[in-house]
């Protein structure tokens, strides 16, 4: 990532950010007349909050598209530059774009689906392991944030075991950002007040 030329790095940071900042959760709920997502549940723009509208299809579409935009950023960089560093920069920027979109006054989502999409595009074996970790932890705990935090923590471990040590720096940055975005969830988990998947609040 550090070997990428500055001009190339800036280009893919901008492209990645703009792709990541597309607020699919808000767009989908508006198109389906499900109300203002920012006024529902936690106010978050991600799939977990979309699920609180009661529309599972909308939540699934949000999850998929939020993941796809992260993957597209990485794959575009791969197709157009062939530079591994550019791919990582584009993916990281897409994640940041989702969390801090300029269109929503930098008040975005927590980035879990985009994180998984980015990891899948950077290394599909590592990405599949992260997805499996997320799914297992979420199903066992019935708490969305537990799945996200567990998958994020495990991501660098999977990178090491799958011999993708070239991704550990970006993986560590993404993990730290995931934990930062989930700091309120961490406080609720500690207090035992974190809602279960599908809860209205």
UniProtKB/TrEMBL annotation:
Cellular compartment(s): Cell membrane
Main subcellular location: membrane
One Pfam family it belongs to: G3P_acyltransf
GO cellular component: plasma membrane
InterPro entries: G3P_acylTferase_PlsY
Transmembrane region(s): 6-28, 85-103, 115-137, 157-180
Protein name per its UniProtKB record: Glycerol-3-phosphate acyltransferase
Organism field: Tropicibacter naphthalenivorans
